[in-house]
Each structure stands twice: as C-alpha cells, then as structure tokens.
Amino acid sequence: MIIVFNVENLLALFTAAFAVSTAGAYLLSKIVIEPIREHFEQLEKFSKETLHELNLPINTITTNTKMLSKSHRDEKSLKRLSRIEMACEMLQRRYNELDYLIKRQIQKELIEPFDLKELIEERIAILKEIYPSAKFNTDLDSLSLKMDKMGFSKIIDNLIDNAVKYSATEATVSIALHDNELRISDRGAGMDDMELLRIFDRYYQGDAATPGFGIGLGLVKDYCDRYKIMLHVESKKNKGTSMILDLKRVEKP
Q: Where are the chain's structural domains?
C-alpha cells in the first residue's frame, strides 16, 4: 500500500501530533507539578500559622520582664532580667525578618516613595532603645527613593545591628548619607580578606560567639541585587568596617 502525503495530510498529521503532545504535557504537569504546588501551599500556611503563634510568647515574655524589672532592685536580678530582655529583642528581630520574607513570597513588594533620611532617623530611634549604650553619629542629607520601604528598613536594621554586635562594649556607629551614597561604619573587630570573601554566604558567621544566625547580610545582598544597589565593603582587622550602599542607579520618585 502506498501512502501519498500532500500538504493537507501533513498539516492534519502535525496538528494531531501537537494535540497529543500538548495533552500529554498537561497530564504530566498535573501529575508532577500539582503535588509540589500543594506542598508549598501547605508549607506557606504552616509558616504563617507558626509565625503567628510565636508572636504571643515573645510579647508575653517581654511585657512580664519589664514588669519584673520595676519590682526588683538588686543588681544580680536586674542583670538576669536584662539578658532575658535582650534575648527577646533578638527573637523579635528574627520574627520581623521571617514575617517580611513570608509576606514577600505571597504578595508583591509595596513600592512607594519615601525619604531615606527620615527612614534612617526612624530606625535609629528604635535601635537606641535596643542598644542604649551604643553611640550613633549621623550626617544625613535628604534623598527621595521609590522602592520597597519595609525591605530597606530591614537593611538598615541589619547593618546597624552588625555594627553594634561586632564593636566593643560601648559601640560607636557612624551613619552618613551624601551624594546618593549611604555609609554605615563601626570601629569594631573588622575583617581580614578571607572573611570578606564569605560575609554574604548564608549562615556564615565570622565569630561563632556573637549572637545571630548568619542570615542578615545574605538578606542585605539579595535586596541590593533586586534594586540595583551597588554594595561595597571596606574593612580592616581590629580597625572597623564600613558598609557602603551606592544608590545612584535606584529609581527616584
């Protein structure tokens, strides 16, 4: 038997083959992708519920610790309560970071105009309560930006938090904002060349004795990459570190 293929026959054959392959691809995607999608939906739900449940004990411990501080006057008890308060503050910061990450996964970032000088001043006012012994030197010009304000506030918190953690007992942090450049500097432990190569790796900590999880600078780097912020680090061992954010390419209102 001889089969003669003309243009119409070839077109019909191609159409049938395409329909079969499309149907097969659809069925394959349902078999493979659907369970993965359901898994991530369950994981997302679990993360939100767990995060919500964590907020209550953190607030309860913080509130009761402050109440106990008012009724205790001996130095030993006050030191112990102070340590509990500091631990709660660390948990609260981790909670805020996780809350931000989860919200960023399930909804688009809120892009809005804001003045970076005002945002920095707001964050410093809050951080002064957490680090009452730290000294903050500021030299800030106004700079209008249009981006994820909540995310940038996390960047500021992380960089200042690191500057305080890796400084001496009475930390001095300098924050300068001029000519589209934000510079956050400390006079702390500093880093050598080997440490500088790894500081943006997730879970890496130069000093294992310093509180934290090694996540903060990874978040900073991710944010800067998304918004075309050039991130530079200047550091010398036992001299201090400067984190420099070049904002020239960032969208302006």
A: 8-106, 111-246
Question: What backbone phi and psi angles, to 5 degrees, belong to 29?
Answer: -65, -35
CATH for 8-106 (3.40.50, 1.10.287, 1.10.3470, 1.10.10) = 1.10.287
Fold of 111-246: Heat Shock Protein 90 (3.30.565)
Distance, in Å, from the CA atom of 146 to the CA atom of 132, rounded to the nearest integer, reads: 32
Tokens of 195: 């440490």
Tell me the per-residue pLDDT of 192-203, one tens digit each, with 9 for 90 and over: 888 887 777 754
pTM higher than the cut 0.70: no
Q: Do residues 149 and 110 make contact, with C-beta atoms less than 8 angstroms apart?
A: yes
pLDDT at 242 (0 to 100): 94
HSE (side-chain half, CA atoms, 13 Å) at 135: 9
